[in-house]
Design goal:
Layout (H helix, E strand, L loop, with lengths): L1 E5 L3 H13 L3 E5 L2 H10 L4 E5 L1 E2 L2 E2 H10 L6 E6 L3 H10 L3 E5 L3 H12 L9 E4 L2 E4 L4 E4 L2 E3 L3 H12 L4 E3 H8 L10 H15 L4 E6 L3 E6 L5
Parallel strand pairs: 1-2, 1-3, 3-6, 6-7
Antiparallel strand pairs: 4-5, 8-9, 9-10, 10-11, 12-14, 13-14
Helix pairs in contact: 1-5, 3-4, 6-8
Bound molecules: calcium ion.
The site of calcium ion has 5 residues, from β4.
């Protein structure tokens, strides 16, 4: 899941970014409204975290402009305690949630996951495919009740594929969700992650397989339906 964090306080931004990356999110950071708009034009995001007091304007103008363009990306407003009015108007303008600063990063991560679970193609927090289950809150995958140890990126890849189980998910969609901007991504990083995940699933006895749709993307299919 890819997040855009818009916050001009560099220390606070870095603190939040690190916590979310540890939690398995890919995070891009913008310090100004202008930069946020550039990021939003260049990539697609699953969630925007938005500070309101930005050097070149009010974060609420970004909420307004995203909603006027009918962009459905969830927005979580991060506001100071004296910004209670702003918080209400933020929700009026189409923000989805708010958090009053200062807040614990664990609380922020939990709110992010809750927003990402909302309807709009996104299922609940526990996903199932064959004998494979994935709890996106607990960051845990299991094959027939046995824990499957996966590094964060492979777990995210598995989650994206499980959310669209039985369908081919485009490479670009996967890459967009898994890697943040400016991150060194070798051309075959996704292939490498997919083949490691495929081996781990097979070794654990999962009855789903990860198929490569050459040149298009990847799909998670139940093993008896693979031909
Ligand atoms: Ca600020």
């Amino acid at each position: 899941m890819r997040l855009l964090l818009v916050e001009d306080n560099a220390r606070f931004s870095e603190l939040v970014r690190r916590a979310l990356v540890t939690d398995g999110f890919a995070v891009d950071t913008a310090q100004t409204l202008r930069a946020a708009q550039d990021f939003l034009e260049a990539a697609s995001y699953d969630l925007v975290l938005l500070d309101l007091g930005l050097p070149d304007g009010d974060g609420l103008t970004l909420v307004k402009s995203l909603r006027s363009r009918a962009l459905a990306v969830p927005i979580l407003v991060m506001t100071a305690r004296d910004g209670l009015d702003a918080r209400v108007s933020g929700l009026d303008l189409g923000a989805d949630d708010y958090l009053v600063k200062p807040f614990a990063t664990a609380e922020l991560a939990a709110r992010c996951r809750a927003l990402l679970r909302r309807p709009g193609g996104i299922l609940g927090s526990v996903l199932t495919a064959g004998n494979l289950t994935l709890d996106s809150n607990a960051h845990e995958a299991r094959v027939a009740d046995k824990r499957l140890e996966l590094p964060p990126r492979e777990l995210s890849l598995l989650e994206l594929l499980m959310r669209r189980s039985g369908q081919v998910v485009a490479r670009a969609t996967l890459e967009n969700s898994l890697y943040s901007m400016g991150q060194e991504v070798s051309p075959n990083a996704l292939e490498a992650a997919a083949s490691r995940l495929r081996r781990r699933l097979a070794a654990a006895g999962a009855d789903v397989t990860l198929h490569t749709a050459h040149g298009i993307g990847y799909a998670l299919m139940s093993s008896d339906a693979k031909d």
